[in-house]
């Protein structure tokens, strides 16, 4: 199965010329985040570990409860609890990535899909930050996501709609 995923990745990289997903000219990453959008290793890890749900373009599948990353995910880095949420969601916490690889993927995701929503004083995710909170996985992410959405909304920030667990 791993060979199939690698083969698919090679096809995608060949068809896209190896280019990572891009953002519009209006989305300018703060200088601290910009280099992460160029990481080929993080891009490959995203394609193998995250794109199955969040899609190759970061748009997710909102009708199936998978939120879009575009112009949204970066706002979570404005709150310590938001940063923890990004690390602790099941797809991230339970991925096959090392703590360093997961930190790089998280940095790539926010720099690629949501640079305009990052705080000016954005601090990159680190392996030690990931390692400190990753073991504490959520029993249910929906109520945590709702609390974060409300807290960010009170600060004037919009998070992508999240329909999972809203029944």
Automatic annotation (TrEMBL):
Signal sequence, start to end:
1-21
The family database entries (PROSITE patterns) matched by this protein are listed as: CYTC
Q: What are the record keywords, sorted? A: Heme, Iron, Metal-binding, Signal
Question: InterPro entries annotated for this entry?
Answer: Cyt_c-like_dom, Cyt_c-like_dom_sf
Q: Molecular function (GO) terms listed?
A: electron transfer activity; heme binding; metal ion binding
Q: Does the keyword Iron apply?
A: yes
In what residue span(s) does the Cytochrome c domain sit? 34-141
* Identification of the protein by name: Cytochrome C
UniProt organism field = Pollutimonas thiosulfatoxidans
